Amino acid sequence: MAARNPEERIYRAVMRIPRGRVATYGQIARVAGMPRHHRQVGRALGRLIDDGLVPWHRVLGAGGTISTRSADGSVEQLQRKLLEREGVMFDARGRVALARFQWKRAAKGP
DNA sequence: CTAGTGACTGTTT
DNA sequence: AAAACAGCCACTA
């Protein structure tokens, strides 16, 4: 059962992120089957309306950084708050410790 | 049709 | 460490 369009694949991939875990744009793109389409991930999530179905707050930039999308950074704070509520910790630099919280896809042997 | 832009990433200077 | 370059896709003017 393959997704029909890229957007749906992206949403699916994001929804697969377990609670208390995070993933990067590149990782989502990879999981969605588009290893070099990380930009489309961000674009798709930007179009997405937060209806509570897609945990957009679990998607971070490379290295566990939160991407800037609002001038005052209010959305960033919300995202950080949501993540902390799930038990995700940030370091002094404002980045997530990916070594601890990055979502690791279940290794499935071929 | 072309050109510009964007929740990005990885490699090279 | 920071900046520049290249790569990919969708939407808008």
Tags for this model:
110 residues; mainly alpha; Arc Repressor Mutant, subunit A; two-stranded parallel ribbon; DNA-binding
What does this structure look like?
With 110 residues, the chain is mainly alpha-helical. The longest helix has 12 residues, at 74-85. It starts with 5 loop residues before the first helix and ends in a 9-residue tail after the last helix. The protein has 5 helices and 2 strands. The model has no long low-confidence stretch (mean pLDDT 86). The protein has a two-stranded parallel sheet. Helix 1 crosses helix 3 (38-47). The chain has one domain (6-100): Arc Repressor Mutant, subunit A, CATH 1.10.10.10. It is globular. The protein binds a DNA duplex (13 and 13 nucleotides) through helix 2, helix 3 and strand 2.
